[in-house]
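tool_log.txt
---
The assistant was asked to compare two proteins side by side. It first ran the structure predictor on the initial sequence, then on the second. Raw inputs and outputs are pasted verbatim so the downstream comparison step can read them without reformatting.
(1)
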Amino acid sequence: MLSEVLEMLAIRRDGIYVDCTFGRGGHSRAILDRLGAGGHLLAIDRDQEAVAAADVSGLSADVRFAIEHGRFSDLGRFVGERGWSGRVDGILMDLGVSSPQLDDARRGFSFLRAGPLDMRMDPTQKTSAAEWLADVSERELARVLREYGEERFAGRIARAVVEERRRHPIATTTDLVRLIEAAIPFADKFKHPATRTFQAIRIAVNDELGQLQQGLNEAVEVLAVGGRLVVISFHSLEDRIVKRFMRDEARGREIPGGIFEFRSSPRLAVLGKPLKAEEDEIRINPRARSALLRAAEKRAA
């Protein structure tokens, strides 16, 4: 959704922008192409391989560009260290797992590729998916599968995991896929049986929803008046958080006040309806089918 992102960011040549999910630099490169000599772009990514890709691509040689290894929750710190708090003209968050991560069997994100059951967006973090599965309780696992994966057979899969790990470690993507296939009574003919479980475990291991909520809060704090927040989500859990956040910030948040309830001043104005990828893009990149873009603008206090 590159053209939609650029339109919603409304890039000024001398502006300050943050790409919170660098990936392999497609959005960052396009933003830089629209910046003048006085513009600045900060990129952030949890994945050290993505950070290293900025050097390989040559983007790091651009004096207008900088990249940091970090998470959404680090946004305020990285911006503050540069003296940009309250001055940022646009922030982009392209959520979820990136195509290079999915396509690399060593990362363990895909149920279609045999590899170690890792799923860490930041390989330097302590707990992999295999280690998380080895320790999580049956009850908590069922909750995660139900809430984060909307998996109807969450209880069956959680019981199967607990029973299997007593006999053998669940160490690879293939181990987990076979377990899921054996645990469910029938599969959804439109989805691979492991889709929801892999999504749920990935979200839990990386604290994706918690990081998103914190990142959204920090984004509003660092934006300049008139600055824009653009978020691309790929599943309903993410989009629900983004939608509610933008809605609440556009209305003003409720503040408890005893008998009376108060609302804070609105901090955002929602920019139109959510956008979806065009059919031409979906044909080239089928993963864009579920993409949903929402944008909002910072309002004056």
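(2)
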Amino acid sequence: MNRYIALVLGSAILASGSASAADNVTSQEDIASAIEVAFGVTATTRYISRGVAQSTGPAIQGYIEPSYGIFYAGVWASNVDLGTSDRAEIDLYAGIRPQFGDLSLDLGYAHYFYDKTGSCCGEWYAKAEYAFTEEFAAGGEIYYDHENDAKYGVLKASLALPHDFSVSGAYGTYFDNTNDWNVGISYTLQEKITLDARYHDSNQGPAYFIASISFDSSFRLGR
């Protein structure tokens, strides 16, 4: 009888251990499948940031961004020509993107590096966009560099047009007399390739007409 009870208890323990192991494997697979990795590359006739040219000619820019739920982190890079020895900019960033109905938020921090001079600076950012209709969305962004006590804000809007076209524009300011704005039209092919023609202007320097082509995609781990 005691031997029978021992066999029953032993089998139950083994079964329990096997179930726990199976649950653990399932959990790991679920976590892996919930991790999405977005990536993309852009070729542009000139790298423009906040109305100021960061390159004297064409630029190639790329990024990779893993995310899990509302959490994300990524790296973005571009060639630059700033009149210095630096030839590349590398941005590291991380944050969260919660969504409340038609309101999308993006809260995070980005730090900027250059290939020769190293760490430059960093900014906290908060972005909000509201989809008023399926075609029209508008929002704003605010950036704060706590080391240099510098602020930059943007108001923007976009309107989807028939046949996968859209128009968009933005107005940015450093909250002083330094302002910039842009307006452009885009065409998206199969939700992955985007052609964009955009006019940039500011009170900091010359205006630019920029053309770019972008490829964006994503995949999930564990699939």
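---
observation on (2): The chain has a mean pLDDT of 89. The chain has one domain: 5-220.
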